[in-house]
């Protein structure tokens, strides 16, 4: 990089052993001297940054491709795959060699679950993340099947490569590995054109560590991408950057790690009005009037589980209205307030409690068992990161369940039976 225009910087590459004997040690960017808040750690010239504008040489083609059937990640992965075939003749050879060394591993030296075996994915049993991994893998497969589109649309790009069209030159497994490696280190630049929005920055991730409680970001400035640090560092300390407001499920999927101090962590609960309900259309109209959909997603943020439960109650109460005259009253009131009888409130809260109990029961281990596993220093790294994720999910679900139980305890009359209704809202 210094030979090709990198100005003097205040970082150095250091090495730590891998947790996995199959992989080489992992490199990381550390401060080469003491740094203060506001110092520029490094500034990488645009000539050393890989973007679609550089790859395709044409912003119009870049936008056309990425609004069509291929993501920026797929295009960047394909470019690096062809460059890798050039070996040492490629300008990017040292960078690609470093990406290969890292293999998309984050700070824990764990690869994204997209590269885990079926047996390893079982570590995520009970977590919605397991289905997210399978869906993302299907999406990567669809992109692989569309790769030849790039070949035909951007023919000028590939004239320099005397190889077959993509799906003949590369197997799906090779493409998936390249895609995951790119996904783990791509930087989302702000205030730049679409063709420069996704960038691969040498000295950036995965050599930089990600943190949820950090404010430093790689930023596009005139002619370069720079990093201004947000905290003091001693010489030799690993440098970290903000990973954006991502829940732990996305951190694991994209970068192979979980942040226990992640205030952006969240769970998703989907509630739906019952389409069998004779008053479904009226309820849908009332829901829309109050900014909700007939199938509504509720986010449960860590530390705000009680607020999430309270946010769900008006929607669920609406689903429990059964008397047509009560429904007319709700329609004419213009507000989100349903007439709440003690038996309706008990039914709504009972349904919530049962829902959280069912979700927790889907995990094969208890919280105590998770803690015991994590205390084992020899625990397989992939199992460790999966256990960290499901432990944090369970804590949020437990807090939600407790919030609903507390609300039941606050009801004036505990002897009231829940109102029966065949058209209760559906939760998943």
Write the layout of secondary structure elements.
Layout: E1 11-16, E2 26-31, E3 40-45, E4 50-51, H1 52-56, H2 59-67, H3 72-85, H4 93-102, H5 118-121, H6 128-145, H7 147-153, H8 155-158, H9 166-169, H10 172-185, E5 186-188, E6 198-200, E7 209-211, E8 218-221, E9 224-228, E10 240-242, H11 248-255, E11 266-272, H12 280-289, E12 295-301, H13 305-320, H14 324-333, H15 342-361, H16 367-374, H17 381-409, E13 426-427
Parallel strand pairs: 7-10
Antiparallel strand pairs: 1-2, 3-9, 4-6, 5-6, 8-9, 11-12, 11-13
Helix pairs in contact: 3-10, 6-10, 13-15, 13-17, 15-17, 16-17
What does this structure look like?
The protein has 428 residues and is an alpha+beta fold. It has two domains: 11-255, Alpha-Beta Complex (set domain protein methyltransferase, domain 1), CATH 3.90.1410.10; 266-427, set domain protein methyltransferase, domain 2, CATH 3.90.1420.10. The protein contains 17 helices and 13 strands. A hairpin with a 2-residue loop joins strand 8 (218-221) and strand 9. The longest helix is centred in the last third of the chain and has 29 residues, at 381-409. The chain is elongated. The model has no long low-confidence stretch (mean pLDDT 86).
How do you describe this structure in short?
This protein is α+β, with helices and mostly antiparallel strands and 428 residues long. It has helices spanning 52-56, 59-67, 72-85, 93-102, 118-121, 128-145, 147-153, 155-158, 166-169, 172-185, 248-255, 280-289, 305-320, 324-333, 342-361, 367-374, 381-409, and strands spanning 11-16, 26-31, 40-45, 50-51, 186-188, 198-200, 209-211, 218-221, 224-228, 240-242, 266-272, 295-301, 426-427.
């Amino acid at each position: 990089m210094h030979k090709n225009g990198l100005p003097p910087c205040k970082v150095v590459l250091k090495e730590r052993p891998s947790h996995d004997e199959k992989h080489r040690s992992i490199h990381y960017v550390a401060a080469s001297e003491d740094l203060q808040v506001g110092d520029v750690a490094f500034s990488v010239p645009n000539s050393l940054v890989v973007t679609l504008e550089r790859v395709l040489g044409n912003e119009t083609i870049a936008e056309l491709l990425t609004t069509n059937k291929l993501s920026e990640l797929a295009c960047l992965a394909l470019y690096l795959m062809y460059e890798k075939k050039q070996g040492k003749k490629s300008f990017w050879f040292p960078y690609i060699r470093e990406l290969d060394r890292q293999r998309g591993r984050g700070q824990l030296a764990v690869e994204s679950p997209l590269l885990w075996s079926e047996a390893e994915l079982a570590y995520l049993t009970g977590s919605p993340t397991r289905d997210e991994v399978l869906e993302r893998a299907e999406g990567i497969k669809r992109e692989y099947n569309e790769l030849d589109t790039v070949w035909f649309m951007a023919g000028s790009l590939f004239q320099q490569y005397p190889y077959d069209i993509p799906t003949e030159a590369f197997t799906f497994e090779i493409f998936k590995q390249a895609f995951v490696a790119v996904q783990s280190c791509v930087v989302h630049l702000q205030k730049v054109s679409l063709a420069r929005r996704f960038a691969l920055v040498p000295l950036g991730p995965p050599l930089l560590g990600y943190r949820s409680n950090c404010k430093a970001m790689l930023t596009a400035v005139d002619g370069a991408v720079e990093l201004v640090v947000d905290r003091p560092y001693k010489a030799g300390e690993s440098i970290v950057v903000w990973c954006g407001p991502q829940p732990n499920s996305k951190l694991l999927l994209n970068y192979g790690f979980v942040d226990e101090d992640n205030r952006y962590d969240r769970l998703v609960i989907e509630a739906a009005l019952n389409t069998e309900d004779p008053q479904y259309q009226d309820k849908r109209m009332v829901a829309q009037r109050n900014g909700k959909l007939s199938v509504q997603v509720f986010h449960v943020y860590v530390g705000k589980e009680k607020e999430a439960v309270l946010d769900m109650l008006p929607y669920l109460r609406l689903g429990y209205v059964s008397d047509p005259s009560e429904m007319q009253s709700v329609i004419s009131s213009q507000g989100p307030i349903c007439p709440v009888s003690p038996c309706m409130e008990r039914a709504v809260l009972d349904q919530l409690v049962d829902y959280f109990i069912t979700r927790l029961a889907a995990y094969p281990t208890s919280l105590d068992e998770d803690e015991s596993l994590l205390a084992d220093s020899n625990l397989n790294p992939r199992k460790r990161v999966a256990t960290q994720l499901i432990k944090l999910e369970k804590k949020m679900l437990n807090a939600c369940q407790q919030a609903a139980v507390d609300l039941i305890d606050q009801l004036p009359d505990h002897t009231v039976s829940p109102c029966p209704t065949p058209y209760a809202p559906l939760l998943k």
